TrEMBL record:
Residues 26-234, 693-784 form the Rhamnogalacturonase A/B/Epimerase-like pectate lyase domain. The lineage of its organism: Bacteria, Pseudomonadati, Planctomycetota, Phycisphaerae, Sedimentisphaerales. SUPFAM superfamilies: Pectin lyase-like (SSF51126). PANTHER family: PECTIN LYASE SUPERFAMILY PROTEIN-RELATED, PTHR31736. Keywords: Disulfide bond, Signal. It comes from Limihaloglobus sulfuriphilus. This is Parallel beta-helix repeat-containing protein. Residues 1-19 form the signal peptide. InterPro entries: PbH1, Pectin_lyas_fold, Pectin_lyase_fold/virulence, RHGA/B-epi-like_pectate_lyase.
Length: 997
């Protein structure tokens, strides 16, 4: 054992960070005279930059505000296709500061009938309340359509936050994104007033004031938001009498003066057709949910933790309310006053004080190696565990080229001791590596939908031994194993292999095939029965002599045979060591591969050898954390693995297998199966610190007439993994397919509007594709135009047979006779975020597995389609005007199982959801918290499908809600709102807690 002493920081290189605007064709406000010093009046300069962008070619562009404080004394007016971008941070809302220098009706306003397709991002708005200024609305977004507010912070304001509204009937204000922002309000003002519809509110934090006001047309989707210290977190009203049709999921409401959510209407028995699921309500003073004249609301799987609300109930009812469905909620209150004659309560628990954990307790942190005098480093958890957890800490950076491994010891509820050790033949002096450490409760768990088994302190030694899982995994898990003790001082690494189902047995090689396995028992049983037929052979006393007696025979011959799941492991010393490693404790964690339900955890595998290889975990994560482990022993030479730190900024990590060289200098290692688990919050890629390749430097014109195909392709071919291929604003005509390669980022200007557009100038099978498998691709802020209005025929805008761990973010697809995004066969673990798709064919076609669609808008054409392996997650998305189905589930290459559709909005489709299979299939599909507003044929069509769960959905449509054909069973209809009578087809199906008009 060689304790690793620490080298100084001078050992490492420091790399410069590029400015956000280096190499980008933005309209920088400082070029127009802005100071950003917090003193000078920058109003005129900012408006001049906006006007310059609007008056430029294409009447579009991005106005950039470098880091600073910009004082304004008049309202800044934005126009169609003009985005304003600050210098922000990846990990928190806010950025460049716009500060009020006077009282204003608004700080930024979109012009009347001129607020389409723009973006406001990475800015902090300071309303100047501390200096006496008042603001009508910080952002007055008139006729806001297809636009985005993201990564902003509003504070120190006496006035309202954001007002999204129509100025005239049908002027257009819908399909907008309000995401990842923070709004702090004081007084009787709203943080966000939605007078528009069909929008996405995701990751919004509102503190103080009146909270959020939902009014007029509705159709908005709320997910993963937090409302605290407001009057009401969300107030839902509709003075003009329209149905609200909203969905609220996975939100937190705490410390609000009146209610977490208030549904309050002037008209008695107002048909809301709203859903509230999977939310937490805590310490709200009057009540958690207020219902005033509110009907047709599904309230399911929420946690009402306000233990002593002033009204006495977690749900307060006034006026005439009815048809409220309460299903599977947890209430701190002792009971529930159920309103009306047609409401229902099923599966709820009351007087709850011991609140169940949403997931197992776990902790992760990247630590810098800094040992104490004894060579070990104490690492403390951020919060103590309830019991002693399982610790894995073998993800080590490659700052120092000397091979090394880790071990842990003395794990307790508050932390553990960590050792970074070089191999015994080395000197033990080592750089301060980054080590990713992970701890989780011992036992079997579901970690946001992923099966986990964590075991600590089992014994391993210098020979292969088998370790069994206590439970089963549906697919072969990824295993992470850690040496956890110091019984043998020789440096060692845990090697594993043969993960999966295996037979454990002992006994003789009865069939002479040089293996001892279950076939020996079969051979012996056959021979025994032949020789002894009818003579004392009914060993299990079932009056029959047959192979059912084999278990008794196994006992007779000393066998112990069973089929189980597990893996094999041993402790491997350096190659020059003649002795096997002594017995030590190890920890191990098995995790099922795939994506977690929220997309914040990705577990997978790839091939890895001694040559460094990019391991992509898909879209960029905020504060990523990475576990890795060899899953095989194809090469018996002693080895571990390391990573390069730079990769974590690019949605992946560069890894390699590292052999020690105690016996010889040869360090090449055969490829092993390499498993990984990446943890973090999904994030967008930013251009900070990345090489930029401008397509115009390769001859692209962007004038919509010249052929830019060759120039764009050359730029892509030149790029290395992690490089940005940048398309400044313009229309880039292509006449043949563009072929992508792994790791490349395509970045345009604006926010999925017409600022940067790739335009089809000829018929083609696909505008964007690849000749081989690709991974780690990122495409954002570009419009793709199929040119159908010019007679062009494009079969697909995007078509990939094998795209993995890639992201399509804020792109817009229009004017195509074919399909929009087609991910076929082998495509997996891709993330489609805030994409708008208008296609005559299929909007989105997922034929692989484990993809996520979030905050998307698909309109027209056939609809969207899911086939293949499944495992997909569709969150917070809007599907309308589909000719076949908003989402068609079918079986082309395999049963599309384990699909989750949550918090989505279906409107004006022929059929909203169509499950259509040739033979009866067990689908394991869940549809949760969705709004079905209008369908011309039926909301849901089910043919030959079993095991589909519909929970807490709202069916506003006057058409049939469910139509069945073929073999249908095991259908669950729970806690939903229906306008017409429905039934759950099949003798094993369940109908519970639903309300019908």
């Amino acid at each position: 054992m060689k304790f690793a002493a620490v080298l100084t920081a001078a050992f490492f290189c420091v790399f410069p960070v590029l400015s956000q605007t280096d190499n980008y064709a933005y309209f920088n406000v400082k070029d127009y005279g802005a100071f950003g010093d917090g003193e000078a009046d920058d109003t005129a300069a900012i408006q001049a930059a906006v006007d310059a962008a609007y008056n430029s070619y294409g009447k579009s562009g991005t106005v950039y505000m470098p880091r600073g404080v910009y004082v304004i004394t008049d309202t800044i007016t934005l126009y169609n296709c003009i985005s304003i971008l600050g210098d922000g941070h990846d990990d928190s809302p806010g950025g460049s500061v716009i500060k009020a220098g006077a009282s204003l009706p608004s700080m930024i306003r979109t012009a009347k009938l001129n607020g389409h397709h723009l973006n406001i991002e990475n800015l902090t708005f300071d309303g100047g309340e501390d200096t006496g200024w008042t603001i009508g609305w910080v952002l007055d977004l008139q006729d806001f359509l297809g636009s985005r507010v993201a990564g902003i912070k509003i504070h120190n304001v006496s006035g309202g936050g954001i007002y999204s509204r129509w100025t005239e009937n049908y002027a257009g204000s819908w399909v907008n994104w309000f995401v990842n922002s923070q709004i702090q309000i004081s007084g009787n003002y709203y943080a966000l007033r939605l007078g528009s519809s069909d929008s996405y509110v995701n990751g919004l934090v509102v503190t103080g004031g009146m909270g959020l006001l939902e009014e007029r047309y509705g159709g908005n989707l709320y997910r993963r938001c937090k409302f605290e210290n407001c009057y009401n977190g969300i107030t839902v009203t509709n003075p003009e009498g329209y149905n609200c049709n909203i969905a609220v999921s996975e939100c937190l409401f705490e410390n609000n003066l009146n209610a977490g959510i208030s549904f309050s209407f002037a008209d008695a028995d107002f048909n809301c057709f709203a859903t509230v699921t999977n939310c937490d309500f805590s310490n709200n003073y009057e009540t958690d949910i207020e219902l005033n004249n509110a009907s047709n609301i599904s309230i399911a799987k929420n946690r009402f933790k306000s233990s002593n609300p002033a009204c006495g109930y977690n749900v307060k009812t006034t006026g005439v309310s009815d048809r409220i469905s309460f299903t599977d909620n947890l209430f701190a209150a002792a009971d529930l006053a159920i309103p009306g004659y047609n409401s229902c309560s099923v599966g709820n628990e009351f007087s709850v004080s011991d609140w169940p954990a949403d997931s197992p307790q776990f902790w992760s942190e990247a630590v810098i190696w800094n040992p104490g005098p004894d060579g070990w480093m104490r690492v403390d958890f951020s919060e103590p565990f309830d019991g002693i957890p399982v610790v894995i800490a073998q993800t080590v950076s490659a700052r120092d080229p000397e091979p090394c491994v880790t071990r842990v010891r003395n794990v307790d509820c508050s932390g553990f001791e960590l050792l970074l050790e070089e191999w015994d033949y080395l000197d033990g002096v080592h750089a301060a590596e980054v080590i990713h450490c992970f701890a989780i409760e011992q036992g079997r768990h579901s970690l946001d939908g992923l099966s986990v088994e964590a075991v600590r302190d089992v014994q391993a030694a210098g020979e292969w031994d088998s370790f069994e899982f206590a439970g089963s995994f549906e697919t072969t898990p990824i295993v992470f194993a850690q040496l956890a003790g110091d019984n043998d001082i020789n440096t060692a690494v845990v090697r594993i292999k043969d993960i999966g189902v295996f037979d454990r047995c002992r006994g003789a090689d009865f069939n002479n095939d040089d293996n001892i396995n279950i076939s020996d028992l079969s051979a012996f049983a056959a021979d025994w029965l032949n020789q002894n037929s009818g003579i004392k052979s009914d060993l299990n006393d079932d009056s029959s002599v047959d192979y059912l007696d084999y278990g008794i025979l196994a006992d007779v011959w000393g066998y112990s045979i069973c089929s189980t799941q597990g893996f094999k492991a041993y402790l491997q010393n350096q190659e020059s060591s003649a002795a096997a490693h002594g017995t030590e404790n190890i920890n191990y964690i098995g995790i099922s591969p795939g994506w977690s339900k929220e997309g914040d955890i990705r577990v997978g595998s790839t091939a890895l050898g001694s040559e460094a290889r990019w391991v992509s975990y898909g879209s960029s994560f905020k504060e990523p954390f990475f576990l890795g482990s060899m899953q095989s022993c194809n090469d018996s030479d002693t080895a571990s693995w390391r990573f390069f730190e730079s990769g974590f900024a690019k949605g992946g990590v560069e890894c390699f297998i590292e052999e020690e060289q105690s016996l010889d200098s040869e360090a090449g290692h055969l490829e092993e199966d390499f498993g990984y688990a990446a943890f973090g919050k999904k994030d967008i890629v930013t251009p900070m610190g990345r090489p930029v390749i401008n397509v115009k430097d390769y001859g692209a014109s962007g004038n919509a007439y010249a052929d830019d195909t060759v120039a764009i392709q050359q730029a892509i071919n030149t790029a290395d993994a992690g490089d940005i291929v940048y398309l400044p604003k313009g229309a880039y005509k292509i006449t043949s397919s563009i072929y992508l390669k792994s790791g490349v980022i395509l970045l345009g200007d604006g926010d999925a509007n017409t600022a940067s557009k790739i335009l089809a100038g000829a018929d083609m099978p696909a505008m964007i594709t690849a000749e081989e498998a690709v991974s780690g691709v990122y495409i954002t802020k570009i419009c793709f135009d199929g040119g159908s209005y010019q007679g062009r025929s494009v079969s697909n805008i995007f078509r990939f047979t094998d795209m993995r761990d890639s992201t399509l973010d804020r792109i817009r697809l229009i004017n195509t006779t074919g399909s929009g995004i087609v991910l076929r066969h082998q495509s997996r673990r891709n993330y489609l975020r805030s994409c708008t798709v208008h296609a005559d064919g299929w909007g989105i076609w997922l034929d692989g597995w484990d993809c996520i669609v979030e905050d998307g808008y698909c309109s027209g054409g056939y609809g969207s389609r899911i086939s293949g392996a499944g495992g997909h997650r569709i969150f917070n998305s809007h599907f309308d005007r589909a000719l076949i189905a908003a989402i068609l589930f079918e079986d082309s290459l395999g049963n599309p199982r384990d699909v989750l559709v949550r918090n989505c909005y279906m409107d004006l489709n022929s059929i909203a959801l169509k499950f259509d299979y040739d033979i009866a299939l067990n689908t394991e599909i869940s549809i949760e918290n969705c709004i079905f507003r209008a369908s011309s044929d039926t909301d849901v069509y089910i043919n030959n499908a079993n095991n589909i769960s519909f929970e807490a959905n709202s069916h506003r449509s006057s058409s049939e809600h469910f139509t069945y054909a073929g073999d249908v069973d095991y259908i669950t209809l729970s806690g939903s709102q229906f306008s017409v009578p429905v039934s759950a087809e099949g003798v094993h199906s369940i109908y519970r807690g639903n309300c019908q008009n």
